[in-house]
Structure formats: structure tokens, C-alpha cells
Amino acid sequence: MLLLNFLQQFQINPTEALIHLFTFVVSIIVAISVHEFSHALVAYRLGDPTAKLAGRLTLNPSSHLDPLGTLALLFVGFGWGKPTPFDPYNLRNVKRDSALIAVSGAASNFILAILLSLPYLVAYYTHNMTLGINSVYSYLFVAIWLNLILGVFNLIPVAPLDGFKVLAGFLPKDWYHDFIRTEPYGIFILLFLIISGTIQNVLLPIIARLSEVLLPAFIGSI
């Protein structure tokens, strides 16, 4: 989908297409690195040094990028980084702290998307929008969009996604143990949801709506 957009644009304007491609690749690297680093940072703050000892308490992309997950993000629109390890036995409250570690990745992507959109929002709501600002965001839009994808996708409450542990953290103790037992089957459920198009049909409108909130009246495109 994203690669097809790039190829179509390349036939029209090679220079602009290359800039979009560069922005896209950099955006993937930054979004995934920030996501996984946030998991490691929150785990460390909560008393678990596992990720730090594994060299994951860093923004260095080489520590976080998963080749298959990066390709999936390029061709499919959904992807992932290397899972950040943590040891629940180092946590004071396993149920709560696991949920905090899990949600931190998606939260970091939402925060990054908001920060990237702030100049646009300020210009829009102060009626100082210019063609130059809109032109810049025709490139930055992809970075905001990718962060929203990673944030929303990872909150799906199906293992191995972060949303599984986030939901588990809110469940009553009796339900929690039953829910955790479904974890081994999560990957099959996730594959079914992707292949059937269910995830795309549900998440893409959500991502589009969030994009409209962060970039109101945006007339550029990627």
C-alpha cells in the first residue's frame, strides 16, 4: 500500500517521491525505536533491569528494529520492533506494572505524533496557516500517521501485542488468570484478524480520525 503510493508518485515527480520515501524510512526507524525504548525505560523505572542489561535502554535503532516487522510496516501498513524483554519477578505489582510497561510503547507513539503536529495546530488555530507549513506537513504527515498506526495497532488486546497486557491489567483477578491462559493462541487470532481484513477495517478509520484531529483541514497527501 505505502510502497505502491511511492511508486505511483515516482512516475510523476521522482524528486518529491524520494523525499517522501526518505521521510517514511526515517519515520519508521524513529517510531519503532521510541516505542521499544519506552518499554525499556518504564520497566527500568519500575525496578526491572532486564531490558537495560540486554542493551535496550537506548534510542539506537539497531537495538530495536526487527527486519520482518519493518518490512511488514512498509508493505502492509502494520509492523513491529524487537520485543523488549522484562522479568515480571522484578516488579512490585506484576499485574499493574506489566500493564504500565505495555502501554508505554503506544503512549510514546501518540506523544510523538502530537509533538510533531503541534506547529501545524498552532498555525491552524491562530489562523496563521501558510502554503509553506502545509508543504512541510505533506512530508511530516507520514511520520504522524506511522506513529498513530503503531500506537493504535499495538493496543489491540490480543497477544503478542501490548494491548493484551494492558487489558489484563484492568481485569479483576479471577478474570485475569483465565485471560492470561489465552496468550499462546493470540498469534493465531491476530493472523486471522489481519488476513480477514477485520483489523484494517476497524483500525484505519480510527487512525484517519486521529489524523484529522492532529492535522485539521490538512490538504496535503502522501
Characterise the protein shown here.
- The protein has 10 helices and no strands.
- By secondary structure, it is mainly alpha-helical.
- The chain has one domain.
- Helix 5 packs across helix 7.
- It starts with a helix and ends in an 8-residue tail after the last helix.
Mean pLDDT: 88
- Rg, alpha carbons: 19 Å
Q: Would you tell me the structural class of the helices and strands?
A: mainly alpha
Total tally of structural domains: 1
State the distance separating the first and last CA atoms: 11 Å
Largest sheet entry = none
| Residues in helices, as a percent range | over 70%
Sequence of secondary-structure elements: HHHHHHHHHH
β-strand number = 0
Q: Which parts are unreliable, with pLDDT below 50 for 5 consecutive residues or more?
A: none
What is the strand content? under 5%
Sum up the overall morphology in one term. globular
Count of helical regions: 10
Keywords:
222 residues; 10 helices; 70% helix
Short description:
With 222 residues, the protein is an all-alpha fold. Helices cover 70% and strands 0% of the residues. It contains ten helices and no strands.
Topology of this structure?
Blueprint: H1 2-12, H2 14-45, H3 50-53, H4 67-75, H5 94-125, H6 131-154, H7 162-170, H8 173-180, H9 186-195, H10 198-214
